């Protein structure tokens, strides 16, 4: 089997090392082994693979043995540096840059070589971080969730920034209009444009050169979310974001722009006043909060997690769960026992069948909130859940609180009660013993595996976004 390029390069370095140790020139060694010095030069530079008989002759002439020459270890520090540079410059990461490789000649000092290698190592490190494998994404997301729990999911600086921008645009009360959002964009030097050919990997695109924010057409299903998308695009500029350095930075930026949009759609002052009055009336409800500000049920529920602990002293949890019971978005600071993997990650885990986040899918009336008390190892919790459907399938939105705080919410009188002993697997994860006895060893299901489980996000300045597609889009519209 032919040797690899790196193996040949290492062999060449070892031959050169032993030749120089003997004080021989290429021509002198060539004369002893019966080949031209130019042929030996090709071998020492890793460009030609020698026959075994020639290797034996070289080993004999340099006072070593073939096994030593074939060792995979570089013969010295300099050789190790040159081999590392060769590997780095052969990598796809470096080749994508279109930069000519550097030749480590005799005149190049070790310090210079170390400096060049330092740049290559950093390039590789950034590539590994930016590629965002599922493991990296889970780790970064878990760390961010825990940090937000420590501050009760409340970011005062962004709250103040949003109120300032709203005041400057003349917004005083009620639902935030598309016109006001356009004014907020104009005050930042941007025009909102709605186009039908956005890159498939981008929710919006901001043209910094021409002062434009491109959004999907207003007629698309769910177009009510265009206000939020525009506000998120503006938030990148207001918050001074730069291209994310790694996946954790990307997640932090995404959280901040979502938070800013929520602050604008449901301003702190007005929202706290609304929620405080509802608490005083013992009539807190996600659907009322949603309707008061003209937002989605999910946005209202998530916004309550920003404000209710800080301003009303109520700990709570929020869950978005898909039709299979898997958690897609989560926040909790009330002690609700959640499923998690060994790394502490919650997203993607399946919630207990007894939770209202799953039992709500069984309800006939999907247009209203459903209430439930659930006894768990962490205590008893009251929850409100509502279901919905998107192109990706069913989902439920749940907001819940510990038993004692249920007294502030509408629906506290519900008689529906369930018991969950999860994470004890006997609760709902183990199959029925009788069914197990009947079918164990007699079934072989074929699992539905989603390819995104194995696929890293597309590489680019912004994880998940195809840079080439975005630039081509901008070029089309800039010329128009």
UniProtKB/TrEMBL annotation:
Xref: InterPro entries: Cro/C1-type_HTH, Lambda_DNA-bd_dom_sf, TransReg_Diox_bact_type
Superkingdom as given in the UniProt entry: Bacteria
Record SMART domains: HTH_XRE (SM00530)
Residue stretches making up the HTH cro/C1-type domain: 15-69
Keywords for this protein: DNA-binding
Coiled-coil spans in chain: none
Pfam families documented for this protein: HTH_31
Name by which UniProt lists this protein: Helix-turn-helix domain-containing protein
Natural source organism: Microbacterium plantarum
